[in-house]
Amino acid sequence: MVDLVNIEDMRRRARRRLPRMVFDYLEGGAGSERGLRRNRDALDDILFDPHRLVAVDHRDQSAQLFGKTYAMPLAIAPTGLNGVLWPDGDRALARAAAKYDIPFCLSTASTSTIEDVARATDAEKWFQLYVMNRDQARDFVQRALKAGYSTLILTTDVAVNGKRERDLRSGFKVPFKLSPKILFDTATHPLWSLAQVRHGLPQLANFASADATDVASQSALMARRMDAGFDWEAFAALRDLWPHKLIVKGVLCVEDALRLEKAGADAVVFSNHGGRQLEDVPAPISLLQDALAALQIPILMDSGIRSGADIAKAVASGAVITMSGRALLYGLAAAGEAGVCEVLDLMKAELDTTLALVGCPRADLLSPRHLATEARAAHPQK
After folding, report:
1. Taking the CB of residue 50, how many other CB atoms lie within 10 A of it?
2. Which residues form the FMN hydroxy acid dehydrogenase domain (predicted)?
3. Quick check: 377 pLDDT over 50?
C-alpha cells in the first residue's frame, strides 16, 4: 500500500512522531497565520493554460543558475534548528540535496556547523546569513568562504522577531526548559525522545563550536535580536567582503529588488519567510510577474511551495529556482534523510506530470503563457 501520495501524508507522519511543541515550531506562522494561508491560497488559485499537440515524450526538469545546471528548479531552503526534528538534520538535508543534484542552503541557525556540513556532502552549498552584529557576521562569512560555500544568502526580513503565537504558547526554545507539560509531551512521543537522548540535545552549533562559543548569541538568535540597523551601506560592505555570488532573501518589493540589482546583488529571493515574520504581506508568487518584467538578475522564490505543480507555477511566473522548507522538513521529521528523499521523489514526479500535461517539455521553457489569468479561467474562449 502506498503511504505517500501527497505532501499531506508526510505531514501527518511528521506530526505523529514529533512532540506537539516541536511540530508547532515547524508548522507555525506569525500571528493568526493568515500569511501562511495566503501563501497557499495564492498558489492554489493559479491555473495552468495547457498547450496541446506539443511533443512531451521527453521531458527535462533541469534549471540553470549562475552558469551551473541543476537537476530540477528547486533548492532546499535555509531552515533553523533542524536537529530538533531529526539528529544531524542539517547534514541529512545536505546529503539528500547531493543525491538529487540540487543546492542546499545552510542556515546561520543550524544545529551542525558550517564546517561539519561542508565535510558531510559534495552538494552545492549555500550559506544563509543572519546579521546580529557586524563582527560576528564577518566571521561567519569568512568561515563559509574557507569551507567552500559557493553562494551567500543574506536574509533581510528579520529586523525583529515575528510574533509566533504557537511558540509563545508552548514556550519552545533551545535549549529546552523542562516543565511538566513538556515532559509529558516528550514522554508521549518516545521515538523522538529516544533519538534526542541518544544523540544529545541540539544547540545552535555555529555559536558553540570550538571556533565560536557564544551563549549570548545563541539566545539572541532564538529571540531574533538582529542588527536592526543593517542598511544599504552595510549591504555594500558585505558585498565587498564576499567574493562569490550574493543572493538577497526576503524581498517583497520590486523597487527594493531593482535597487539591490544596482547595488551588486546577483539574485533576489521573493519571500515572506514562509509566513513566519509578518502575516499581512503579499504572497511572493503574486509578485513574480511584475519582478520578471523589471529585473535583469535571476529571481528565486519561496513561501508555500509544497508540490511539483507549485514549482511549475513559480517557474512559469518568473522564478529560475524555487526554494522549499516545510515540505522537506516534514520528510526530515518523519524519517530523516530517507524522508527528505521521499519528498524530493514526490515533487520530481509531480513536476514531470505537470510538464507533460501543461504541454511543456522543459521546465526552463515555462513562462506566463502557460498560466491562465483569472478572467480567462472564468470566461474561457470558444
Report:
1. 14
2. 1-376
3. no
Q: Which residue has the cell 555555529?
A: 206
Between the CA of residue 241 and those of 234, 278, 373, what are the distances in Å? Answer: 11, 30, 43
pTM for the predicted model, two decimal places: 0.93
Angstrom CA distances, 21 to 26, 185, 262, 303, stand at 9, 8, 43, 22
pLDDT at 373: 72
Find where cell 539591490 sits.
260
CA gap 102, 63 in Å, rounded: 10
* 104 neighbors 75 (Cβ within 8 angstroms): yes
* Angstrom distances, CA of residue 139 to CA of 153, 205, 238: 15, 14, 12
On the question of pLDDT at 215 being above 60, the answer is: no
The yes-or-no answer on residue 273 being catalytic is yes
CA 307 to CA 156: how far, in whole Å? 26
Question: What value does the mean pLDDT of the chain take?
Answer: 92
Among residues 33, 6, 43, 104, the alpha carbon closest in space to that of 347 is found at: 6
274 burial level (CB within 10 Å; 0-12, 13-18, 19+): buried
Going from the C-alpha of 87 to that of each of 191, 194, 220, the distances in angstroms are 12, 11, 23
What size, in residues, is the chain?
382
Count other C-beta atoms under 10 Å from residue 52's C-beta.
5
Which is catalytic among the residues 189, 199, 244, 273?
Answer: 273
Q: Domains in the chain, start-ordered, CATH in brackets?
A: 7-378 (3.20.20.70)
278 close to 30: Cβ distance less than 8 angstroms: yes
Q: Region 36-45: what's the mean pLDDT?
A: 97
What are phi and psi for residue 324, nearest 5 degrees? -125, 135
Burial (CB count within 10 angstroms: exposed 0-12, middle 13-18, buried 19+), residue 125: buried
What's the rounded mean pLDDT across residues 73-95? 97
Nearest to residue 257, comparing CAs of 300, 321, 302, 315? 300
Contact assessment for residue 39 and residue 280, using Cβ atoms and an 8 Å cutoff: no
All three cell numbers of 205: 552549533
Which of 259, 233, 311, 287 shows the shortest CA–CA distance to 63? Answer: 311
CB 29 within 8 A of CB 276: yes
Tell me the three state secondary structure of residue 48: strand
